[in-house]
């Protein structure tokens, strides 16, 4: 139990630590390269840790029941269509580098929080699917606290809550589809508006900010309910975690 807890905590805290510490270590590099560098270093570190210590099987692709995978992805797709993140961390780089950065963010975060953290959470919770998705989503939301450096408290808080909601749906989809690639694609699509932000966040009034906060709180509750319903009849034997 203690070893599993150590592994869980390491995976939980790794990305936020990298996002806090690495920029100060590569201060000499252009700002447009810092985000992709942080995620690439974090990804390499967690891959090495997984090979040598964590020993988690990550399911990158599954071609089984593609129609069912699409049906399971509908809640996440609806969330992407109906919401727009109050982006604070934006991409200030040429289009090609922007696409590469967004892709690296999606790969890194999904590998860590869905591919690694969900299995570790299942080990800690005796295969409680919903609780494990909940824990991994909290970790995913926690990784966004670095954005407080770039934006106002309420706007970033809204982003964190929305990240939690997204994590609930992405985590549920990963458990049911055994297809991390599908989740990575959805994550990539959800971050595409970063390219259109042109390095700046929208200026919001206080009433608009509080309105967004209330909306994302409701969305988070709905996402939790959807996840609970989707996982209710999902057999533990069908879990992608071994």
From TrEMBL:
<feature type="transmembrane region" description="Helical">
    <location>
        <begin position="182"/>
        <end position="204"/>
    </location>
</feature>
<feature type="transmembrane region" description="Helical">
    <location>
        <begin position="95"/>
        <end position="117"/>
    </location>
</feature>
<feature type="transmembrane region" description="Helical">
    <location>
        <begin position="129"/>
        <end position="146"/>
    </location>
</feature>
<dbReference type="InterPro" id="IPR003675">
    <property type="entry name" value="Rce1/LyrA-like_dom"/>
</dbReference>
<feature type="domain" description="CAAX prenyl protease 2/Lysostaphin resistance protein A-like">
    <location>
        <begin position="93"/>
        <end position="192"/>
    </location>
</feature>
<feature type="transmembrane region" description="Helical">
    <location>
        <begin position="70"/>
        <end position="89"/>
    </location>
</feature>
<keyword id="KW-0472">Membrane</keyword>
<comment type="similarity">
    <text>Belongs to the UPF0177 family.</text>
</comment>
<feature type="transmembrane region" description="Helical">
    <location>
        <begin position="7"/>
        <end position="26"/>
    </location>
</feature>
<dbReference type="GO" id="GO:0080120">
    <property type="term" value="P:CAAX-box protein maturation"/>
</dbReference>
<dbReference type="GO" id="GO:0004175">
    <property type="term" value="F:endopeptidase activity"/>
</dbReference>
<feature type="transmembrane region" description="Helical">
    <location>
        <begin position="152"/>
        <end position="175"/>
    </location>
</feature>
<protein>
    <recommendedName>
        <fullName>CAAX prenyl protease 2/Lysostaphin resistance protein A-like domain-containing protein</fullName>
    </recommendedName>
</protein>
<keyword id="KW-0812">Transmembrane</keyword>
<keyword id="KW-1133">Transmembrane helix</keyword>
<dbReference type="InterPro" id="IPR052710">
    <property type="entry name" value="CAAX_protease"/>
</dbReference>
<feature type="transmembrane region" description="Helical">
    <location>
        <begin position="210"/>
        <end position="229"/>
    </location>
</feature>
<dbReference type="Pfam" id="PF02517">
    <property type="entry name" value="Rce1-like"/>
</dbReference>
């Amino acid at each position: 139990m203690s070893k599993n807890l150590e592994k869980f905590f390491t995976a939980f805290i790794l990305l936020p630590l990298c996002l806090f510490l690495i920029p100060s270590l590569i201060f000499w590099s252009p700002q447009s390269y810092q985000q992709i560098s942080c995620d690439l270093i974090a990804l390499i570190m967690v891959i090495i840790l997984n090979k040598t210590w964590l020993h988690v099987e990550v399911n990158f692709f599954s071609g089984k029941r593609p129609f069912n995978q699409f049906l399971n992805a509908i809640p996440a797709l609806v969330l992407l269509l109906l919401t727009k993140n109050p982006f604070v961390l934006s991409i200030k780089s040429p289009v090609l580098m922007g696409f590469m950065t967004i892709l690296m963010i999606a790969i890194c975060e999904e590998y860590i929080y869905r591919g690694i953290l969900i299995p570790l959470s299942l080990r800690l919770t005796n295969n409680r699917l919903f609780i494990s998705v909940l824990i991994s989503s909290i970790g995913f939301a926690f990784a966004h606290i670095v954005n407080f450096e770039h934006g106002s408290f309420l706007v970033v808080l809204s982003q964190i809550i929305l990240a939690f909601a997204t994590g609930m749906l992405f985590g549920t989809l990963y458990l049911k589809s055994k297809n991390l690639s599908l989740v990575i694609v959805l994550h990539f699509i959800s971050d595409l508006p970063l390219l259109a932000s042109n390095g700046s966040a929208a200026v919001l009034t206080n009433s608009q900010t509080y309105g967004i906060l209330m909306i994302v709180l409701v969305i988070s509750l709905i996402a939790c309910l959807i996840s609970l319903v989707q996982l209710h009849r999902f057999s533990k034997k069908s879990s992608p975690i071994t």
